[in-house]
């Protein structure tokens, strides 16, 4: 139980026994100290789920909601050239994908691998 390095991996792994089952997970880091912090956070997450119940699912947002929030909060803090770039990128996005304003955010993360029809609106 704890943090360890497998012989076939460059990163540290973490292991924990819960209800008689051993759970193992790659930390994705090569620093033992950081791996220990990740392990501690994992233990907290599992304890919270066990004693307080699973957290509420994160709400789905439409692309329009995310773009409007980005334009309102992030773009104004940028240099003028970066602001123009944001608008150019969004215009290219609109031309390439049409009007994506009803897509849910699940289409954003793996946008290279899924089609628009893979997400429900």
What can you tell me about this protein's structure?
This protein folds into two domains: 2-52; 63-118, no CATH class. It is 41% helix and 14% strand. It is built from three helices and three strands. Strand 1 and strand 2 form a beta hairpin. It is elongated.
Listing every helix as H and every strand as E from the N terminus to the C terminus, the arrangement reads EEEHHH
Number of strands: 3
Strand order of the largest sheet: 1-2-3
Taking all Cα atoms into account, the compactness measure Rg is 21 Å
- Provide the domain count: 2
Number of helices: 3
Query: Whole-number average pLDDT?
Result: 80
How much of the sequence lies in strands comes to: 5-15%
List the helices and strands and how they pair.
Elements (H helix, E strand, L loop, with lengths): L1 E4 L6 E7 L2 E6 L5 H21 L10 H11 L6 H18 L24
Antiparallel strand pairs: 1-2, 2-3
Quick synopsis:
This protein is α+β, with helices and mostly antiparallel strands and 121 residues long. 41% of the residues lie in helices and 14% in strands.
Summarize this structure as a short list of keywords or feature phrases:
2 domains; 14% strand; elongated; disordered C terminus
């Amino acid at each position: 139980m704890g943090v360890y390095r497998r012989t076939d991996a460059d990163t540290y792994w973490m292991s924990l026994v819960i209800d008689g089952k051993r759970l193992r997970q790659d930390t994705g880091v090569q620093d033992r100290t950081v791996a220990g912090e990740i392990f501690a956070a994992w233990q907290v997450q599992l304890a919270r789920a066990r004693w307080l119940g699973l957290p509420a699912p994160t709400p789905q947002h439409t692309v329009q909601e995310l773009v409007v929030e980005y334009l309102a909060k992030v773009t104004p803090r940028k240099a003028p050239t970066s602001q123009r770039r944001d608008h150019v990128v969004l215009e290219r996005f609109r031309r390439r994908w049409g009007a994506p304003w009803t897509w849910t955010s699940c289409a954003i993360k793996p946008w290279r691998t899924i089609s628009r029809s893979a997400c429900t609106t």
